[in-house]
Amino acid sequence: xxxxxxxxxxxxxxxxxxxxxxxxxxxxxxxxxxxxxxxxxxxxxxxxxxxxxxxxxxxxxxxxxxxxxxxxxxxxxxxxxxxxxxxxxxxxxxxxxxxxxxxxxxxxxxxxxxxxxxxxxxxxxxxxxxxxxxxxxxxxxxxxxxxxxxxxxxxxxxxxxxxxxxxxxxxxxxxxxxxxxxxxxxxxxxxxxxxxxxxxxxxxxxxxxxxxxxxxxxxxxxxx
Length: 224
Known about the structure:
Helix 1 (46-57) packs across helix 6 and helix 3 (80-97) packs across helix 4 (110-121). This protein has six helices and eight strands. It is an alpha/beta fold and 224 residues long. The protein has a single domain, classed as Alpha/Beta hydrolase fold, catalytic domain (Rossmann fold), CATH 3.40.50. Helix 5 (170-178) links the parallel strand 7 and strand 8. The chain has an eight-stranded mixed beta sheet, with helices on both faces. The two termini are 24 Å apart.
């Protein structure tokens, strides 16, 4: 399968300047996913690259991007305001370059939460849905406070969460998802927050292939 690849920079915020993005589009792509990384990584992290490749195999184009702090590669994480502005900028750039494709937003851990917070604060035009790869329900003490803003979102949402995720107790996450409209939860057998799995996993399917397959099936249902 032929996949076009393009790397470029875009302005995250006027104050913080440019960050890197990588756009991968397979032939006959059916949708575009703006894909953000987790708090401690960047767009070239192995999880991001292998997930992007698996999504491309499912005919989903991906637009990966850095935040200013991950672009620098040093220093602490950007403040929430900067991260929220960056995810909005990423979606805007992706939409302008790919008007023909339905656009979804998603991310691993922190980025999924940033997309949902941005959407809850002010709905993003033409966004078709949000995908959470390991939604960080809490950092240490189990609670559902971080999920309160999700009730403000009137978009389809897909949660893919590991059975052993220490940042999202499944009982609590199931409670959250059941209280939302147009939302689905897929549990990944034996996976942790970074989607590392155990040898006793019940399926031989590669974990990134599973994430991509479920994502593709869900997008197909949304698009009808």
